Amino acid sequence: MSENSEGRREEAQKIKESASQTRDVLKQHFNDLKGTLGKLLDERLVTLLQEVDTIEQETIKPLDDCQKLIEHGVNTAEDLVQEGEIAILGGVGEQNEKLWSFTKKASHIQLDSLPEVPLLVDVPCLSAQLDDSVLNIVKDHIFKHGTVASRPPVQIEELIEKPGGIIVRWCKVDDDFIAQDYRLQFRKCTSNHFEDAYVGSETEFIVLHIDPNVDYQFRVCARGDGRQEWSPWSVPQIGHTTLVPHEWTAGFEGYSLSSRRNIALRNDSGSSGVLYSSAPTYFCGQTLTFRFLLGK
């Protein structure tokens, strides 16, 4: 009874922890989404306001120039009229001199040449075109954004130790979920960072370069057919291997070893001999593959 009670408490605690973590993920995601959307809307508003400023400046400048030219012509004409009136009121000698000056200035001024004022219908009238249907489009996407699942659609099924590696097998637990790709990650239990080991359509992968007698965590997720986002991660599974990685013994003539000494290649030496492994790392039931490449 005590074991069953303890098991139920652990399961209940697991549900509470996963629910709390899911709440935090949802809140963080939607807060980030609101911040990003607000920033994008602000940037778009600034762009449109800058376009209004540019159009306003470009279209009002010719009108301002026209107004200044008209005012300059009117002021010049007023000055010339005043000068003519003064010339008429002066003495005979002074009058002739001022009339001559007035006539000379008048001949150089085109009082009847003023810029044409554009028609009111030809003057630009700014407006904003805003499509309210974008709200319905965004609303539809938001209402469909995100899902909550009671369990991940894939789970790790089996961990099989190999020399210097672990075979990880996983399977779907949601029959309605159509998987396009799977993603496998692993980490040492002492590490805080998962790293990718495999992405593809297979449901099995051997993770190599595993330190013997060290616990590793493995997790897998899937991407639905035609989707871009990945599903929630499976429950992490802990595995380890007690089998050390296979190594060939160095120092035999006629063979060159890779940096990890797990691959042996015949070299150009004419000598031949037997190649030995450094330890009996393979046992009955395990597979050792040899590949022979023939030179020309």
TrEMBL record:
The keyword Cytoplasm applies. May play a role in the negative regulation of cell cycle progression. Residues 1-17 have a biased composition (Basic and acidic residues). Its main location: cytoplasm. This is Cytokine receptor-like factor 3. It comes from the Eukaryota. Keywords: Coiled coil, Cytoplasm, Receptor. The keyword S-adenosyl-L-methionine does not apply. GO terms for cellular component: cytoplasm. Residues 152-245 form the Fibronectin type-III domain. Residues 1-21 are annotated as: Disordered. Belongs to the cytokine receptor-like factor 3 family. It comes from Rousettus aegyptiacus (Egyptian fruit bat). InterPro entries: FN3_dom (IPR003961), FN3_sf (IPR036116), Ig-like_fold (IPR013783). It is found in: Cytoplasm.
